[in-house]
Design a protein that fits this description.
Chitinase A, domain 3; 350 residues; alpha+beta; two-stranded antiparallel ribbon; 17% strand; 5-stranded antiparallel beta sheet
């Protein structure tokens, strides 16, 4: 079922929390009192949240930053090969003293520990020095794909030409100065702590908003659906399946099967349920925003559009991928955020 829901989410242009798809959809001509009966949405209960950043959180994030600054350095001649190094080698594999097909190469790069070769090959190079010649006495596995080599004893003569090693920098003041905008360890650590705090707080707020939003939807009865909009979403979802199938060079039936839809009838049923749920949510957003006089400013709309553009989504891209004009798209997103904030502001926090 999860894959089925995911495929229907493909039409959603996931920039923020809520998005539409297909050509612009408007509820202006509908009296929503005739379509939905919204129950209690003020005074709902929601779980309180606390945000705590531990020392371990900060250390883990710093380690991520260190690993993100990993640099590849060439291993000096005479130094030993370590696990994880990418080693350039020449090798010749022989069986009964004769080189066998596919067992030789020059200038071949292999990452030690990747398991690219048979057991013992990569391990046999660990500890050897750059420039060394290594002799490896190995045995191919019994189930090896080549019947001529399966279970056979072989010898590999390997010359280690060079090696490259990924080096994670040490955590010190030099790292901070060279890789961040901060000039001291404390300033950097304080900034990391604040970043983690903001992330945790944002997630907690989102969870709280989703909690009350789910309750509002549960408290809302759909009297009838604006079938024109439901059909619009269903047609768009179906079209997306066709376009995806074409892009992958497969049939529509194969595309549906890849998302665990047994047949067209099953897809149609899930498609209708998904489309009706989307329409219900949009009607509730429009209803509460109108009832409570929730609106947004031109500055907020401009800022959201600027955020879209910063992520690489200009007006043309948004329209081509959602079918909505950018202003229309931004409107629904902004109203959704306003409604969520209103619900939390008017909730009873436990």
């Amino acid at each position: 079922m999860r894959k089925k829901l995911l495929v229907l989410a493909i039409c959603t242009f996931v920039l923020m929390g809520l998005a539409g798809c297909g050509s612009s959809v408007s509820y202006e001509k509908y009296d929503l009192n005739e379509y939905i009966k919204v129950g209690k949405y003020k005074g709902l209960t929601a779980e309180a949240y606390t945000v705590k950043v531990t020392e371990a959180d900060v250390e883990a994030r710093i380690q991520e930053d260190l690993e993100g600054a990993t640099a590849s350095v060439e291993v000096a001649k005479g130094d030993s090969v370590n696990d994880g190094d990418t080693v350039n080698i020449d090798y010749v594999g022989k069986k009964d003293g004769k080189a066998f097909d596919g067992g030789s190469a020059e200038g071949y790069d292999i990452e030690i520990g990747s398991g690219s070769f048979i057991d013992g090959f990569e391990d046999g190079l660990v500890g050897a020095k750059i420039g060394d010649k290594v002799k490896l006495n190995l045995t191919f596995p019994e189930d090896y794909q080549s019947a001529e080599l399966a279970g056979q004893d072989v010898v590999f003569n390997v010359k280690i030409n060079s090696a490259v090693r990924n080096v994670v920098p040490e955590y010190n003041l030099d790292f901070v100065k060279n890789n961040t905008e901060y000039k001291s360890l404390k300033a950097y650590e304080d900034a990391v702590e604040k970043q983690i705090y903001n992330e945790k707080e944002s997630e907690a707020i989102s969870n709280q908003q989703n909690e009350v939003w789910s309750k509002v939807l549960d408290n809302t009865e759909v009297i009838k659906y604006p079938e024109e909009i439901v059909k619009h979403y269903m047609n768009f979802n179906s079209k997306q399946i066709d376009e995806m199938a074409e892009s992958y060079g497969i049939t529509r039936a194969e595309m549906l099967s890849s998302y665990d839809f047994g047949n067209e009838e099953e897809f149609a049923a899930v498609n209708e349920d998904s489309s009706r749920l989307r329409v219900k949510q949009e009607m509730v957003i429009e209803y509460i925003a109108d009832k409570e006089g929730l609106d947004y400013t031109d500055e907020e709309a401009d800022q959201l559009v600027a955020e879209f553009e910063a992520m690489g989504y200009d007006a043309a891209t948004i329209e081509s991928q959602t079918g909505r004009k950018v202003d229309d798209y931004a409107r629904m997103e902004l109203l959704y955020q306003k409604v969520l904030q209103f619900l939390v502001d008017n909730a009873k926090i436990k």
